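Readers of this paper often ask what the protein records in our data store actually look like. Such a record has a labelled line for the sequence and another for the backbone structure tokens. The tokens are whole numbers drawn from a learned vocabulary of local backbone shapes. We quote a single record here, exactly as it is kept in our systems:
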Amino acid sequence: FYDGEPGWQYEPLSGAIALGIDTSHAHVQPTGKYHYHGLPTGLLDSVKLNPKEHSPLIGWAADGFPIYAVYGYSDAKDAESDVKKLTSSYRLKAGDRPGGNAPSGKYDGTFVRDYAYVKGSGDLDECNGWFTVTPDFPEGTYAYFLTEEWPVVPRSYRGTPSSDFSHGPRRGGGRGDFRRPPPRRGPGNSRRRP
């Protein structure tokens, strides 16, 4: 974070801070969690992303909507329409940052607040998604899309994230089978049988 006015967060892909971003635009946090800030190129190579086909489903957001990458139908309501590269509706601001307790200098993409949502300037909404038909949802669904331009990875949810979406460490065998910790023993904690 910028040490000044709140809200001036460095843009991870700007190069202004050394995060150790790898070739898949991701890095490991000090907590050991690996996460993406940009297009997951290794994943997209493995699913054989094709500019002539609608993107395959590459994930699910915490609010339950699907996530696709880069390519979708040119007509969101027509699966027979041409496939195109979908574009973000965020644009780099023109001019200079305010200065004072906020950063100064030209808007150049160093900070998240260097970008502004400009409705209708691209295909996608402020959450980097739109309501569309997809190969997986022929009747249509809201879907997020990773884009080649900022914000690349959606930065906000259209829906409400599930209460069981955990930001903490997982327990269990890594296949989604969460195990309970062993029962506690001691005063006031009796051993229970299943």
User: Anything to note?
Assistant: The chain is about 5% helix and 20% strand. Strands lie at 26-28, 34-36, 59-60, 66-69, 71-73, 83-85, 90-92, 115-117, 129-132, 141-146. Residues 1-155 form one domain.
